Structures are given as C-alpha cells and as structure tokens.
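Think of the structure tokens as a kind of shorthand, similar to the way a musician reads notation: each symbol stands for something richer, in this case the local conformation of the backbone. In the example below we present two proteins back to back. Begin with the first one, reading the sequence and then the tokens, and try to describe in your own words what changes along the chain.
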Amino acid sequence: MTSSIRTCLWFRDGRGLEAAEFYCSLIPGSRIEKTFSADAGHGAFSVIDFSLGGVPYQILDAGPMFTLTEAVSISVATDDQAESDRLWAALTANGGEESHCGWLKDRYGVSWQVYPKRLTELTTNADKDVSAKAMAAMMTQMKIDIAAIEAAVRG
C-alpha cells in the first residue's frame, strides 16, 4: 500500500522496528512496508512505514527530542470480547499498563483503545437510558467487559 497520509509515532529508544513488527503480528492484514535508516549529520534515525489492518502508520525513531503521549492513540474496535481480550493481553504484557475505559499503554509507550464494536452500539444507542447505563458501566472498567455492560443495560 502506498499512502501519502500516515500517522507518525515518534520513538526515542531505537525500538521502532521492533514495535512495528510486534504490532503487525497482532493485527490481521498488517505488514511492514518500508524501512529506512541513516545519519543525516544530526544523529542516527530510522523510519518504518507499516500498516495495521490496512491503515497506514509510520514510526520515526529519532532520539529523545519528543515523547509519546496519550494525546495520540491507536483505536481498535474488535469483532468480539475474545479478540479484545487477546489484544489487551498482548499489548499490556511485558511492561504495558492498563488504564480506564478500554485504554492502555503498551510496552513501547504507545496508547491504545481496545474495545468490542458492541460497546459503540450500546453507548451511542438512540435510547438515552440504554446509552447512559452503558456509559456508566464502561466508566467503572479498565479492560472493557461487554457482558458486564450488557448486564448493566438490562438492569
């Protein structure tokens, strides 16, 4: 895939290619597209173009000038709870950190939102009672448990 628009993630520790390979191993239809490394007189850097499920990303691994923050995250709406659980476990392993409402930070410092698609159906439901109960239940969770949210909606 060639795309002129990519979300670029700044890495500072030389693990950009490792991260891209890890991400591609988790998401079906993902691949490393191109890598480039050089030293342009200001220090060594590398650029990794890759796609996750067909969505283009880029990692610029270029040293300590900038840090990753939760202000940018990769959002993954999964088909079911099992897929959410699989991704959650892989992304929080080996130093990742859980956060609230389906958010986490992986071992490289990249923030992710991982949740079953059913969550969006419930939280944006036209029935305001359903959406309010779904939102209230979601706000109490770290990893999204869609069965618990559905139970809360049923009352």
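Once you have a description of the first chain, move to the second and do the same.
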Amino acid sequence: MSYAVAALYRFTSLPDAAALQAPLRALCEAHDVKGTILLAQEGVNGTVAAPPASLEAFLAELRGGPLFAGRLDGLELKLSTAAKAPFGRLKVKVKREIVTLGDPAADPSVQTGVHVAPSDWNALIARDDVVVVDVRNAFEVEMGSFEGAIDPRTRRFSDFKAFAAERLGDARGRTIAMFCTGGIRCEKASAHLLAQGFSDVRQLKGGVLKYLEEVPSAESLWRGTCFVFDDRIALGHGLAEIPPEETTP
C-alpha cells in the first residue's frame, strides 16, 4: 500500500494551542494519520502521512472543519508519496514556537520576504547582485543544495541569528535569496533579516520540495538530493524517493 505525505504549516493566531492538542490527536487517530505536528500560539507545523483517502479527509478537516474554525484555511501544503509508511507513530506537541528561532521580532504574521515562485527562482539566483543563502542545517546541505549557495554551517535553526550577524552584515544592501526544505524556516529567517534592517529579502515559495516538484530536472539548478525528516530520508526531482545507497554524501 502506498502512502500520501503532507508537509504543512500555517502561521496564524492560536491562543488555544494547548487546548487543541488532545482533539487534534484524536482527529489524527480517526484518520489513521501518523507523523509529527507542532502546535504553538503562532500556528501549526508538521509532516504527516496516511493512506491517500484518509489524508485527504484529514486535511479537509484541518482547513474547513470545526476544530480550527477556518484558521487553517490558508494552510501551506507540500504533498508527496511514500512506498511504505514513513512514520512509525504519531506525535502532537505544544511548543513555544512551531519553528524555533528565538527572536520575538521575527514575526511572519507581520512581515516576511518576497515569495518567489519555483519557475522564477533560477533567474533570480543567477543574478550577480544576489546573495543565495541555504537556511537549512549543515547535515542537510551536505546531501544537496543549489550550487554557489552559502552554507551557514548551522547545527540547529536557532543558530541562524548568529550566522546572519557574523556573516551577512556586508550584504545588508544586496538582494538576499533564501531557501529551505518546505518554506517555513524561510518565513522566520526572512522576518528576522527584515527586522535587522535588510531591505530586499526573497524566499523560494514552497521551498526545495515545491521546486523539485515543479521544475523539470533538465532545467533544474539543484544538485544532489533533498533531506526530509521521515523514514524516506531523501527525495529527488519529481519528489521521487531516493534509495539510501544513492543519497549523498
């Protein structure tokens, strides 16, 4: 049996995040959904999997059902498939942030970088005046990235603040083009740079996953594979699963 996989997030006010934990878990269990979902007062973030019909019904409940009462109708989604179950269990957690940066000024509900469609990304990062930044962690970058992108060499996303202060100061007046796996880290990272006085910050809409889904391999500037946080480990163009022996390094 094949499985449908959804990487999802939405920045929206959820002051009742703690109260949502138990009913959200029950909703997942009712639809045979496994994976990890994080709840915080700033929104929701997660990657989950289920049989295709079950996942479709679950996502419909998130976006239009009574539990979130329309607050997730703009849910950002990246859909892919898995030949076998990519998660062994379900985790629904309440956190301080749905992606931890630790900068109260970085509020994606107030400001983020300009979203760039995958179809326009190649032209942007080919420009001489653009600084391309990979917002992912070092072990992810080792498996694949866009050629010429800066690797911040971070161990965790919260290290991005120090990287920006130490290494991006000279680029404050230039165009910054950033990317991450599914887009959520760029929402926080771009908000952080804008709060620090960077004026032209852009981000790959939908992240690497959307780029690999939409941009033909013959036109792609991506090199290597894309690490994903489930048992598939890595995806390639067309969001195809990559056998472990073919992943890099």
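Compare your description with these statements about the second chain. The first helix runs from residue 17 to 30.
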